Amino acid sequence: MAAPPTPGLLPDLADLIRLQHGARGFSFRAGQAVRALLPGRRASRIRGRGLSFEEIRAYRPGDDLRQMDWRATARTGRPQSRIFTEERDRPVFLVVDLSPAMFFGSRTATKVTRAAEVVALAAWRCLAAGDRVGAVLFSSDTVREIRPARSRAAVMQILQSVLALAARLPAMPTAPSGPAALNKALQHTATLAPHDALILLVVDLFAADAGTRAALDRLRRHNELMVIPVSDPLEAELPAPPWRGLADDGSGPALLDPAASNLGQRVRTGVAARLEALCGAGRRHAVPVLPIGTDAEPAAQLRRQMGQRRTATGGGGRAP
Question: What residues does the VWFA domain cover (predicted)?
Answer without folding.
Answer: 89-268
